[in-house]
């Protein structure tokens, strides 16, 4: 199984693209943080991201959802964010890199969980707020740069998808995955910083300027 990460700053249209990929037949795994925020807000927490356990809860759900796909028969699974995004989020929020997050970064490295080429959805030139997305456009641009820095620092290759219409970007990502997958079926390119060392590295990477475990689906499959 080859697992591809789709990332980007809030408001870039990433989740809409991921859902479009599902309509094209890709198995996709939804973003953990958005679901956690929605669940907590439903129970009266207005700003769940301020909680001390927020980052670790995201990591836990990401790990559960990734492992829930292990038994899938799909050759390709598309993930809406990864623990590297969670590293960027911790930096953005000014939170320390926890032992839980460091351990998960170690695991995805040593187990070669994700492909090394990451599809990066670039901002649209604006950021529309939602209940879970309370960030200005200027802060979204800063957050975009933090994401870029985190992925590059951990050895990933960034594939840019620039602003365009939703359908055009869905097709661009679909074609990019097909291209990458053609290469990766013969040559595995996995991001590695040295087994057992990425968690230690995580703490040094800096840049300053009821849910179900299985949240994967494909809309063309039963």
From TrEMBL:
InterPro entries: NadR/Ttd14_AAA_dom, P-loop_NTPase. It holds the Pfam family AAA_28. Residues 3-169 form the NadR/Ttd14 AAA domain. This is NadR/Ttd14 AAA domain-containing protein.
């Amino acid at each position: 199984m080859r697992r591809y990460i789709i990332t980007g700053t809030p408001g870039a249209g990433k989740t809409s693209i991921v859902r479009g990929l599902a309509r094209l037949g890709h198995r996709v795994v939804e973003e953990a943080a958005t679901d956690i925020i929605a669940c907590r807000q439903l129970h009266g927490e207005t700003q769940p991201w301020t909680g001390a356990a927020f980052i670790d809860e995201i990591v836990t759900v990401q790990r559960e959802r990734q492992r829930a796909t292990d038994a899938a028969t799909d050759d390709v699974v598309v993930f809406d964010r990864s623990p590297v995004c969670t590293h960027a989020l911790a930096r953005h929020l000014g939170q320390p890199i926890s032992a839980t997050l460091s351990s998960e970064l170690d695991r995805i490295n040593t187990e070669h969980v994700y492909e090394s080429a990451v599809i990066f959805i670039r901002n649209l030139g604006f950021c529309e707020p939602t209940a879970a997305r309370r960030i200005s456009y200027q802060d979204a641009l800063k957050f975009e740069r933090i994401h870029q820095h985190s992925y590059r620092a951990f050895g990933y290759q960034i594939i840019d998808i620039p602003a365009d219409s939703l359908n055009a970007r869905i097709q661009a990502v679909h074609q990019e995955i097909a291209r990458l997958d053609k290469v990766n079926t013969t040559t595995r390119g996995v991001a590695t910083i040295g087994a057992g060392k990425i968690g230690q590295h995580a703490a040094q990477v800096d840049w300053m300027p009821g849910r179900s475990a299985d949240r994967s689906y494909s809309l063309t499959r039963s």
